[in-house]
Amino acid sequence: MLHLRTGAYAALAVLLGTTAMAQQRTLNYYADFDPAPLAAFEAAIADFEAANPDIDVVLQNFDHEGYKTAIRNFLTTDAPDLANWYAGNRMAPFVAAGQFMDVSDVWADNGLDQSLGSALASMTIDGKQWGVPYTYYQWGIYYNKDVYAQVGVEVPATWDAFVANCEKFSAAGIDCLTTGTSALWPGAGIFDYLNLRTNGYEHHMKLTGGEIPWTDDSVRATFAEWAKVQPHITENHAAIDWQDAATLLVQGKAANYVMGNFAVAVFKEGGMTDETLGFMPFPTINPDVARAEEAPTDTIHIPAGAKNVEDAKKFLAFIAQADTQTKLNMALGQLPINAGSTVGDDPFIKAGFELLSTTPGGIAQFFDRDAPAEMAKIGMEGFQQFMVQPDQLDAILERLEAARSRIYK
Amino acid sequence: MALASETPRPRTWWRRNQQRLTPWLFLAPGMAMFVFYVIYPIIASFRLSLYDYDGLSAPEWLGLANYAELWTDPAFTTSLYNNVLWLVLYLLAVPAGLFIAIFLNQAVMGIRIYKSLFFFPFVISQVVVGLMFAWFYAPNFGLLYNVIEYFTGKGVAILADPDLATYGIIAAGLWPQIAYVMILYLTGLNNVAPDQVEAARLDGAKGWKMLWYVILPQLRPATFIAVVVTVIGALRSFDLVSIMTNGGPFGSTRVLSYYMYEQALSEYGYRMGYGAAIAVVLFAIMMVFISGFIWKMVRDERGVH
Fold first, then answer.
1. A240/B54 touch (CB, cutoff 8 Å), yes or no
2. Which of A72, A238, A248 is nearest residue B270 as measured by Cβ atoms?
3. Which of A377, B184, B269, B289 is the most exposed place for a label (fewest CB within 10 A)?
4. What is the pLDDT of residue A20?
5. ipTM, 2 decimals?
């Protein structure tokens, strides 16, 4: 039985539920799904309940943004048995505060370090695993094929070629690179890729982990690459949302967009098709650096205050299975993490699967998940400012460095 | 007589003090609420501002370190500066509201409709006002952007420009605030004594002199209320900043209340102690104005009796 409930109705549902199904064990699951993922998860939960008739999963869905605040309250006060969250440093505060349960045994008993190997590093803190990942998606450059044809340039493989193209796009009155940084995070995608391509995965992890000063020459080298395209970035990006920038790409006013695969839906709603929308990996800057990619991973955790731990672990094992992840990600339009899963026919999904499964360098989570929340905020403001006022670079880097020495104690 | 022989009932403690106690008993529920919802949170915020607390781990005593950090925090300086800017420019609503009120204070066919139309912006939610102005300013499709582009050849995206964004938000805030002040003055103008205006006119007063020496003194109570609501409105500005820019571009439109929210409660910061320290500073600034207003009100009340 699957309940979807909100507000006062919730109390009633619990009352009726406990009397009607006294012999069943309940598993409370708090999540933050948008409508389409919600439907996918309802189906997965129905499968789980069919396989375990004595378990009743009660899913309470939160608003996506509100959830980020709510989780801090409910983990300490009224913890569910399962909760959605994110991999990498984003889960570190909850792990450090003892709010998430160590689920290394789920990984060991089900051989997940093999099947979910690509996400092992991002789920591990202090040598233990703290949750189970169920989906991720690639980042890269989405481009308008018509605009490429109109200006007469090739899809670039190297950064130099990309910058050369930018000159031509600008001459034609087209924004070479578009973004909308009103919510700050889209700018971080550009920085992540520039740094991953200039200095590599290890450097990027150390930088977001606070081990490398922001005023270091290696970081300046990344910003020097950024400065090459800065004049070709959509001018008023600071005032527009990422969807508005997507519109510019759809309308042919912009050529390239560093984005996550979730943007494909927006491009297609705007009228683009597989024939006009292209995807390319971020071009090579330093050929000596192993190619690393960005793929934010969504995860499920067991809060330390969970009441039904045994069944919660059963659910995690179920979500980790290859067939569950195949089915789930078909519906989500994203990539499964289980190596035994298969992906759908969508060209962008296939490109992403190919890209991530062959990544030699490593998979980053995204700036605001790899860096601690506070550093992420100050960093992303710095990136936005650099794209508006590149001459302020020294002031920006010094501000970030001051923040680094305060935040990472 | 039976009545006379009856001994007087003993005067209990309650009967003796009834007169003095009753008002306090009636006040008790209100006072309890006030202590619980106003006084206690103020004290709790003060206390919290001395700790480093993320809402999850145990609070850590810092002493005045949060305040010391505020002193050197450029984002705090920007917020404080913006709050001052808000305060100064928001007060423009008072003269603007007065002149619209005087303009509308005439007996013409359908004047009620005009009055309601002018009052309309105050009826709309601040969130809607923020959205409307954000679209008005928006690059590519915004009306103002396109008008500027038409005349100068190059559009200006107000909210993307760190030097203009705060002015853009204040302009959005002034729109409903002027309407509010206007309605305060319209009711005030109803109470202006016609015989005094008549007498002034016989003495040859007109135009500015009439306004300054005859009308304005009679509008004093309305002016007082208009200044109070405008000052408080400027200091608690939050919703427009949140809707229109989220404090951006790169933090240039932050105000104290928004910075407090960002530090203590938003997705990217859970420094409850630091947020509380900002709240304490904001509270101190507000107290300056609020005590001034209360002092004036008490003085006026004494003067009446």
1. no
2. A72
3. B289
4. 45
5. 0.80
